Automatic annotation (TrEMBL):
It holds the Pfam family MFS_1. It comes from the Bacteria. Residues 218-407 form the Major facilitator superfamily (MFS) profile domain. PANTHER family: MAJOR FACILITATOR SUPERFAMILY PROTEIN, MFS PERMEASE. The chain crosses the membrane at residues 57-76, 83-101, 107-123, 143-162, 168-197, 218-237, 249-271, 283-302, 308-332, 344-364, 370-390. This is MFS transporter. The keyword Membrane applies. The lineage of its organism: Bacteria, Pseudomonadati, Pseudomonadota, Alphaproteobacteria, Acetobacterales. Keywords: Membrane, Transmembrane, Transmembrane helix.
Amino acid sequence: MEPLLTMSASEARMKRNVWLLFFCQALMGASMIGQVAMSALIGHSLAEDKSLATLPMALQMLATMAASIPAGIIFARLGRRTGFIVGALAALAGSLIFAAGVWKGDFLIYCLGAIPGGIGFGISQHYRFAAAEVASAQYRPRAIALVMAGGIVSAVIGPELVKHTQDMMLPFLFLGTYLLLALLPPVCILLLAIVDLPPAPPRQAVATPVLEIMRRPAFISAAVAGMVAYGTMNLVMTSTPLEMMLCGFGVGASATVIQLHAVAMFAPGFVTGRLITRFGLRPVMVAGAVLTGGCAVVAVLGRDFGHFAVALILLGIGWNFMFVSATQLLATAHAPEERVRAQATNDVLVFGTVACTAFASGAVHAGAGWALLNLAIVPALVIALAAVLWQGRRRVAEPQVAGASAD
């Protein structure tokens, strides 16, 4: 019976670590979801050129992309805990600089806050990878999905703070919101002090070239699926508060829609891992693409509150299915000693795409309109599905470290 007791204790410790990462992800995500609800509105009010309304979000996503490589170096040399603490401190600085920009009414200062804010968000994206590392092979898909489901808490905290604190420090709209968001990263640091995280990976005598990792079919299809999942979601989501404002809706209504969207993004995390284990990566990814396409259809059909809400809910669920599947597929594309390089490279590609779509969102919305903005996501979804089907046919002998089949 003793080995059984030991296994049980080990499993309990593993699940405890996953739940702690869940709450860390929730706290770090709350700032970003609150930012989505506020950023375009603040940018629209501060920028003289209204097509630059989504520039702060674009800069934040650009910083998220840029954070991937230095984050990978920190994780590789100092371990996950130090890297995540650096990310929390960056997020704290971002919230305070955003607050300064609002207080001064200065668009430039507000944009500067996007740099540390984006770095903090970029580093927080590695919580899903940390979940894969602390979990057993069998539990890994569920651990990844569960930690990403921490966004449900983010979806409640972020928009609710926006709705209830936007006018807390008038005449400086949203100043109180940013000051309260600045309290979340220190709480995250306290949780990081008690979670068991793996040490830095062993140094390779000869590091695998990044281009060699990138040529693997599993990496290509995982990166393309992740880029399309996040890019299409961000393109539509970023302009939603703007379109709702132009349709006569207030901040509370658009924050509610973003909240519903965020819940739809992360709530499926409690079952996505089980769906992948039961049906395989590809069917779940295809379902995600179909749901994302459904968002475009609903958005084009009308502009009342119900259309915005349903479209963004479909968009959120589709993102979850595609992105969790892409993350699990990425885990089959590298050996343990290659994980940091593969993960950092993947996130450069994904969040580079997100930065481009964040900037393009405002420009396309201003120039082409809401309907064409939504229809633009359909070709990208076709490309993602083609890449995944191609990888399924071209599957070759690659390092397999994931707990679930890629079928």
